Amino acid sequence: MQEEGHAPEEDDIRQFGGTRHMDLIMYVLYSNDQRFVQDMVMRVTLEVSQKYHCEELATLTRHKDNLLLYKCLFFLMLNFHAKFRYWVLSDNNNLGLQPVCPHKAARFLRVLRNDMIPSFLVNESVCLDEFEHQIKIEYVRS
Fold first, then answer.
1. CB 99 within 8 Å of CB 23
2. Domain map of the chain by residue range?
3. Which of 73, 94, 95 is nearest to 84 (CA)?
4. Residues 6+ apart with CB under 8 A from 81
5. pTM of structure
6. Which of 23, 46, 69, 94 is most buried, by CB atoms within 10 Å?
């Protein structure tokens, strides 16, 4: 629902509808808003690659047509980058999405860090779509 007298901008995520009951994590997982996800993930991956001198990470952002890659990078950065995690969990109220439930986030982040990411990084047979599927299951389960 729009505020009176305030039309959403063309790139405003509220234009995609159905976001009233979504938090940012759900939006990344279930929307097809490639531009929003790409811009957000590019910023954080470039920041991390520069800070830790990891040019290989920055090269991943060259695959602009791969939304699945960007979604998976979102969760890798969510686990790795504390400033990004803080923004996702508490500092994004101006996006028009529901806040992330702290209890849900605590459980999900624990499973993400302890189980899903190590399994994905070690097991080369787990592809990106399977990793995303596991993330969806665990986030809903949380």
1. yes
2. 19-141
3. 73
4. 44, 47, 48
5. 0.84
6. 23
Sequence-distant (6+) residues with CB within 8 A of 89 are: 100, 102, 105
Burial class (CB in 10 A: 0-12, 13-18, 19+), 3: exposed
Alpha helix (H) residue ranges in 5-54? 24-30, 34-51
In this structure, how many other beta carbons lie within 10 angstroms of the beta carbon of residue 30? Answer: 14
Phi, psi of 127 (to 5 degrees): -90, 170
pLDDT tens digit at each of 142 positions of the chain: 344 444 444 454 445 555 557 999 999 999 999 999 999 999 999 999 999 999 899 899 898 899 999 999 999 999 999 999 999 998 777 788 899 999 999 999 999 999 999 999 998 889 999 999 999 999 999 9
- Are the C-beta atoms of residues 22 and 98 closer than 8 Å to each other? yes
Distance between CA atoms of 135 and 116, rounded to whole angstroms? 8
Sequence letter at residue 32: N
The pair of three-digit structure tokens given for residue 140, joined into one six-digit string: 């809903």
